[in-house]
Structure prediction request, 476 residues.
Amino acid sequence: MLQAVQGGAYADIALERFLGPSGLAAADRGLATELAYGCVRQRRLLEAWIDALGRRPAAAQPPKLRSVLELGIYQLLFCQRVPAAAAVHTSVTLAQQLGLGRLAPVVNGMLRELLRRRAAAMAHGAGGDAATDPGAVPGPGGVGAGTGAERGLQTSAGPTTLEPWTGLQLPADPAASLGLRHSLPAWLAEELLRWRTAEQAEAFGRAANTAAPIDLRVNSLRASREQLLAELAAAGVRAEPLPELADGLSLADAPGDLRQLPGYAEGRWCVQDRHAQAIVPLLDPRPGQRVLDACAAPGGKATQIAALLQGSGEVWAVDRSAARLRRVAANAERLGMGQILRPLEADATALTSLRPDWLGQFDRILLDVPCSGLGTLARHADARWRIDPDRIAELVLLQSQLLEGVAPLLAPGGCLVYATCTVEPRENGQRIAAFLADRPDWRLRLEQQWWPGGEGGDGFYAAVIDRPASGERGGS
Prediction:
């Protein structure tokens, strides 16, 4: 999988391709997934360790050897339940199995040198990351049990907590240090320190590498939150209500295949991040209204709108991808909303010409635009390596075209909610400011930015815009 991703494949697709026919037990699939996604997510930090430990930098290592080293180093830094000696031994064995027998001693030597460096840092009192970055906030890390130098990382209470960069010489430049420690692209680390304080940028980096919570939205047409919580508890699944959301709850454990949980087949719930659930209430769809979800796939917000309409009104779910639109329709059928949710394969930038009968006809419009996804890095292992400033510039242009394309469809007195799952200002506040500059009589009622961080949830942005009730004005 790592070799495929190095060649340009998407991490989730590559992993499923290799795990699908593997026949691995659930626990082994879980470990394989953790190692694969972890190595992709932590690429920059792992490469820094290879640079520091080897005679040749990571970029000059043979690709297979580099992947073996990344797997070994990742286990030593992040997998507390994997004994260090086992991580070293299996990495050496893997090198031999891949025809790298003459380089197996290199693997053994580099991994053991990593352990020695971290043991030495621990011996000098570098709990957390004090030896290398005293200003950083302590966080997760650690090394499992082992022998020899590995024992230097043990305490009587068990494995000690070391930052995964402890033992590395960190750059003096704050952005370079932030990017290396949290395995972020250099451009993103620099931007974060412009957008946020150093402490807030640090929190973002940690959130980008912390397992995202699994949040569910109860389908209020078929169940209450209390009913679903009781059913999950009876099945031995721990869940907690999200107090700020009427229909939201969060799973306390990772239960494996979510489709096997109570209520899935009956359409009583769907998976939806807590901050994503907070977008549609800002739209305030009401029974009997006509609502457009202009970029609807995979359908979480479209079905949320349909639930709030309570069977009265209609939701048009538009997407340019036929395959993704089929997922929207399937979700709507499972949740019992097929009668009022209407899928339409179309390019939302061209709706005024494709459906001139829609001009000024929608009480509510949700425009959840394609974006850089910088608020969801914890969920998508390779997303940080696929986005760059040039790609963001392309997305900004598309977002502008989408806003211009759907605005004429909003009825006088109607409400439009623009949403993204990013924290990039050009895609968020700056985009809305540019849109409203041409419509002085349209009103920005509310602007909300959620950052990934301590309270859980992804990073989202929403702007609530009202069109005046006095008619077609403001350039629409």
